[in-house]
Amino acid sequence: MHDPIRAEGFVGCALSSTVFYFHQLESGDWEAKKVIEVPGKKVSGWALPGMPGLITDILLSLDDKYLYFSNWLHGDIRQYDVTDPLNPKLVGQIFLGGSICKGDGVTVTEDTELKEQPEPLMINGKRFYGAPQMIQLSLDGKRLYMTTSLFSPWDQQFYPKMMNHGSIMLQIDVDRENGGLTLNKDFLVDFGLEPDGPCLAHEMRYPGGDCTSDIWLKEVIDKTSKL
């Protein structure tokens, strides 16, 4: 949590596609509980008969209300209301590419979440490849950014077309009141257009601070409360 008085937080587990909530008990001991689990999908035409979600990045909004994570293989970003951290509520979800898009050669044979496979990622008539990977949220919680590259050998294995077309950066508009994610189609950074050839963009940082680098200092809060 960003609030330093709260001795608690969340951990995303990549291969199991789960999120654990951990907190400190009054005894001083620590306790962890699995609170989110992304079910795998049964597929054909892929490397394995079962495809996990593969959580590759996770963050909290600065007010500690919303938890976000990227599901790199399935191709979605999820937004959870964690006001009650033991019972996160899915309030926003958006698919932006991924390995289960229609027409890409993978057929989902069993899915406990979706009724149909998502459409490929298209912006202004152009097809893009890859899936949401690194994410970054503005301090006001209104703009969530994503890039599509994880690790070049994995990119080559799972999204080989991205190697030729380059990765991208997109902006997702966030409903901070009720939850919800909407792609802003007026924002696009296409790293396939770099002068030295296609590039694979990874990490993002705000010059003035962002939700993965900023945290309130307990000492400052204590001093401010006494003024």
Key features of this structure:
227 residues; mainly beta; four-stranded antiparallel beta sheet; 10% helix; globular
Description:
By secondary structure, this protein is mostly beta strands. It has one domain (8-226). The protein is 10% helix and 38% strand. It is built from three helices and 16 strands. The protein has helices spanning 152-158, 160-165, 218-226, and strands at 8-13, 18-24, 30-37, 41-44, 50-51, 55-60, 66-71, 76-81, 89-95, 107-110, 121-123, 126-128, 135-137, 143-147, 168-174, 181-190. The protein has a four-stranded antiparallel sheet with strand order 6-7-8-9, with no helix packed on it. Strands 13-14-15-16 form a four-stranded antiparallel sheet, with no helix packed on it. Strands 1-2-3 form a three-stranded antiparallel sheet, with no helix packed on it. A hairpin with a 5-residue loop joins strand 2 (18-24) and strand 3.
Can you describe this structure in just a few lines?
The chain has 3 helices and 16 strands.
Give the tally of structural domains: 1
Using the CA coordinates, give the radius of gyration.
19 Å
Shape: globular
Average of pLDDT: 92
Strand content: 35-45%
Helix percent band: under 10%
Number-wise, the strands total: 16
Largest sheet at a glance?
4 strands, antiparallel
Secondary-structure element pattern, one letter each: EEEEEEEEEEEEEEHHEEH
N-to-C terminal Cα separation, in Å?
25 Å
Low-pLDDT parts are none
- Number of separate helices: 3
* Backbone structural class: mainly beta
Query: Order of strands side by side in the largest beta sheet?
Result: 6-7-8-9
